[in-house]
Amino acid sequence: MIECRDITKIYKTGSVETKVLKGISFLVEKGEFVAIMGPSGTGKSTLMNILGCLDTPTAGQYFFEGKDISKFSDNELADIRKKKIGFVFQSFNLLARTTVLKNVMLPLIINNVPFKEREKIAKDALKSVGINEEHFYHLSNQLSGGQMQRVAIARALVNNPPLILADEPTGNLDSKTGEIVLNIFHKLNRDGRTIILITHEKYIAEQAKRIIFIRDGKIIEDTLSHLSKEAKYVKE
Amino acid sequence: MFIRDLLKESFSAIFINKARSGLTILGIVVGIGSVVALVSIGQGTKVSIEESIQSIGSNLLTVYPGMQRGAGVQVSAGRGSAQTLTQEDAEAIAEISFVKAVSPEISRRYQVTAKGTNTNTSVVGVTPFYLQVKNLEIESGAFISEQNIKKLSKVAVLGPTTRDDLFGEDSNPLGQKIRINKIDFTVVGITKSKGGTGFQSQDDIIFIPLSTAQRYLSGSEYVSSISVEIQDEKFMSDAETAITNLLLERHNISDPQLADFSIMNQADVLETMTSVSNTMTIFLGAIAGISLLVGGIGIMNMMLTTVTERTREIGLRKALGAKSREINVQFLTESIFLTLIGGIIGVIFGWIVSLGINKFANITTSVSTESIILAVGVSALVGIVFGYYPARRAARLNPIEALRYE
User: Fold this and answer.
1) CA of A228, closest CA in chain B: separation in Å?
2) What ranges make up the beta strands (E) of B129-242?
């Protein structure tokens, strides 16, 4: 699905260079559920931005479905985001003063999905994350945090992307609603979607099948190193 | 994005901030409205000048007495105020072959009274030829006759506006007395309205016999202008030369540079007045353009605020795959929408104002199709010009930073 080969990212502020990522390499297969974990300020978000095609690496290669996209233009990256990636953010990023249904239809509008199909796709996505029909026409800011995040997940699903990228999806939720949201990710993963979840909390990372620990811009541990992939199957 | 989505989203974005959008649109309404209204005044003036000149006729030359220019010294005197032309000059001009009719005139403003009413209007001493030369018609009674001239009769022919002012609208004052400069005149006729307002109205006027005017009002032999009707337009320049030569000879002037008269051609008058009204139109339009500029700055201000407020939304749209160009188009559409709505309302508003000016201030106005199309086009252009920078700013936002924006 995706592969990082020796990715580095350097930010320049004037003459000062900050090396945020120092040679990250890993591979995620289709259908995996991976948590990227590490304390804040270790380059998690930078990695997430590169994985989500919002940013490009300074050096190294990033393969998305076999294509090296590390040198893609902004427009080409936008196309990948539009068709291949569903984003879930910590702060939901729903449009306030806009109905739930319209929020979920936004990616369909951007993706030029015909008018007639939009509503059905959006409603199906909302139902699949457990939002009742009575909430479809509520304004998004009238919902509870858990509902908002489920609406945001529905929005990430409507274009049927193979990869879901979630950045601290439970960060703004209490543990109970956080669990509901995590269960949705489990369900999506069972349906065959690749999920990459970024978090700094261990108990959330442990929900994933595989954890990649990052510290100071380097991977310090990968619970499923692809070099020892066979070993893991043997263990199971 | 589909165009339908683009329009829908722009419309709802404008509608969400009703008060702010309304005030911004108001700025454009005032700008476009004042452009339409003020330009209509300029255009109306132009139309009325053209109409009044057309009604006088284009085969007309007018001779005015002028200053005599001595060597080096400019004696400053306005056209028509010098006393160099006489009735004999007029009679001599009538002998020239291209000339069809000649009308010497003496004109001055007087306070005129009737029973209990009075008005200030121009009193013109004329001969019977005036009617023909100036394309004037009589509505009731008769015009100044040859008999009146010979007998120095104290008779007057009123223009319709003067009749209304002195005797009331649509009254029949034939046989009544009016007083000009303490002398009683009997009203013998009323002329037909020629329309046209402003410059040298042919309706607000009193005609009396030329000889009477010379004897009792001005007390001199001189005339203030001689209107000459030429047989055909194609002889205009020939006639002009002939009249010039004749008058130079009669006045014993050898150098044409020192001529004590000037000849005005209707074409010259038309040109001068048209250029004056064009200057006026441009001037008024420029003043109105300033308010349009202010309206445009309002648009830019609002769009910049909108872009800042919706930074996160822009970040989200980009994360969801919207391209920079699409964001750019979206915000440009929004600002064009604002200015177009303002432009259309502004045209209606300006039109109403121009009708109001026409009705209450009695200034001819004219709203042309071209000026409406131009105004709407300009308003859309204002949207593009003043929306360009905010839209570009939105399009250039970095999605990562925009999503984190608080």
Assistant:
1) 35
2) 138-141, 155-158, 177-180, 183-191, 205-209, 225-230
SS3 content of chain B, % helix, strand, coil (to 5): 60, 15, 25
**Could you give the angle at the alpha carbon of B62 between the alpha carbons of B57 and B65, nearest 5°?**
165
Question: Which of B306, B311, B316 to probe the A interface (max A CBs under 10 A)?
Answer: B316
User: Least CB-CB distance to B322: which of A49, A78, A83?
Assistant: A78
Dihedrals phi, psi of B108, to nearest 5 degrees: -160, 155
pLDDT at B27: 94
Tell me how far apart the alpha carbons of residues A25 and A220 are, in angstroms, rounded to a whole number.
11
pTM, rounded to two decimals: 0.72
Distance (Å, whole) CA B262 – CA A113 = 79
Q: How far is A44 from chain B (nearest CA, A)?
A: 13
How far is the C-alpha of B186 from the C-alpha of B179, rounded, in Å? Answer: 9
Give how far B1 is from chain A: nearest CA, Å.
Answer: 5
Interface test with A, best of B306, B320, B329 (most A CBs within 10 A): B320
Q: Could you report the predicted ipTM of this complex, rounded to two decimals?
A: 0.91
CB atoms under 10 Å from CB of A110, counted, come to 22
In tens, the pLDDT along A50-69 reads 999 999 999 999 999 989 98
Which of A11, A55, A89, A102 is the best mutation test for B, with the most CBs of B within 10 A? A89
In the structure encoding, which two tokens stand for residue A5, read together?
A: 């080969």
Distance CA A75, CA B317 (A): 13
CA-nearest residue to A114 within chain B is B2
Chain B residue with CA closest to A111: the answer is: B1
CA A129-A131-A136 angle, 5° bins: 130
